UniProtKB/TrEMBL annotation:
Keyword annotations of the record: ATP-binding, Nucleotide-binding
Organism of this sequence: Bacillus selenitireducens (strain ATCC 700615 / DSM 15326 / MLS10)
Gene3D superfamilies reported in the protein's UniProt record: Magnesium chelatase subunit I, C-Terminal domain, P-loop containing nucleotide triphosphate hydrolases
Domain of life from the UniProt record: Bacteria
Domain ChlI/MoxR AAA lid: 238-309
A Pfam family this chain is assigned to: AAA_lid_2
UniProt domain ATPase AAA-3: residue ranges: 45-175
Family membership noted in the UniProt record: Belongs to the MoxR family.
Name of this protein: ATPase associated with various cellular activities AAA_3
A GO molecular-function descriptor: ATP binding
Length: 323
């Protein structure tokens, strides 16, 4: 069966300019680019699980260049230490004081490459940054820059020498999704674009960090009617009650889904969220926050199928309920 193509609904001029700019580098993945911008505007983070070479790194770099953001890449390896991520205090013998040397996480946009290849202790060094936007080193808490976006990648094929992300860490990511292979025509377009030089070298800044910060403030003003909030709660609660799920989505998932709906509505030029915002975003917010039962796994049940069933079964609020 042919997959229905994604129809972009972005109406906000600045957001559309940002996405169009990134698409000079990332071909045919507008939905994934838009989801990344949703995360940027609502203060969330993204986990990209896909095979090598599909453009994960290029997408992150393109977003950073498009908004003039400081960009750092952390290559997660088995020998990486927490201080290699957060930073370390070094004693200055000349001035006889300890000086803090910030780690790569103290940037605007951070690419955490192959995050599942490092030890759980180093993975945990990201938890405070993901949830609270700060890092604590030697008892001193330092705030991270705003905007702050972590895009982590992991390879779903290679499991040797990897450390699966614990549920507490997965729960800190707003979205988890794949980029996927391009179509033949899209791959031809990619070849044409990189024939002489890579488009990432030509991409220009189209927004400033001040623009992004202002948009983040506007996103917080997007109205979410009580009936939509109840719809979100019903969806999340249904994952906890589903017969194939041993551990459902947490209250953090409800908050994440509401915040994402606010950003998605803003991108479409609206000052209020609608049920379709929630329905579109729910799979990307909920799928990675559930643990299936052993019986469900043996019967080849998937979290994707569970979320689809939940969305189909939960009643959508009618228009008159939102007045």
């Amino acid at each position: 069966m042919k997959t229905k193509s994604y129809q972009s609904l972005v109406e906000h001029d600045q957001v559309r300019a940002l996405i169009d700019n990134v698409e000079q580098v990332v071909v045919g993945k507008r939905r994934e680019v838009e989801l990344s911008v949703v995360a940027l505007l609502c203060g969330g983070h993204v986990l990209l699980e896909d095979v090598p070479g599909v453009g994960k790194t290029m997408m992150v770099r393109a977003i950073a260049k498009s908004i003039g953001a400081a960009f750092k890449r952390i290559q997660f390896t088995p020998d990486l230490l927490p201080s290699d991520v957060t930073g370390v205090s070094v004693f200055n013998q000349k001035e006889m004081v300890f000086q803090f040397r910030p780690g790569p996480v103290m940037s605007n946009i951070v690419l955490a490459d192959e995050i599942n290849r490092t030890s759980p202790k180093t993975q945990a060094a990201l938890l405070e940054a993901l949830e609270e936007g700060s890092v604590t080193v030697d008892g001193e808490t330092r705030e991270l820059e705003d905007p702050f976006l972590v895009m982590a990648t992991q390879n779903p094929i290679e499991y040797s020498g990897t450390y699966p992300l614990p549920e507490a860490q997965l729960d800190r990511f707003l979205f988890k999704f794949k980029i996927g292979y391009p179509t033949k025509s899209e791959e031809l377009d990619v070849l044409n674009r990189v024939e002489n030089n890579h488009p990432i070298e030509r991409i220009q800044e189209v927004l400033s960090l001040t623009d992004v910060t202002a948009m983040k403030t506007d996103v917080q003003d997007v109205r979410v009617h009580d009936s939509i909030k109840q719809y979100i709660i019903d969806l999340v609660t249904s994952t906890r009650l589903h017969h194939a799920v041993s551990l459902g989505a947490s209250p953090r998932a409800s908050i994440a889904l509401m915040k994402a709906a606010q950003a998605f509505a803003f991108m479409q030029g609206r000052t209020y969220a609608v049920p379709d915002d929630v329905k579109f975003l729910a799979p990307f917010v909920l799928r990675h926050r559930m643990i299936l039962t052993s019986d469900a796994k043996l019967s080849n049940q998937t979290s994707e199928r569970v979320v689809t069933e939940v969305i189909e079964q939960v009643r959508v609020p009618a228009g008159e309920e939102m007045r």
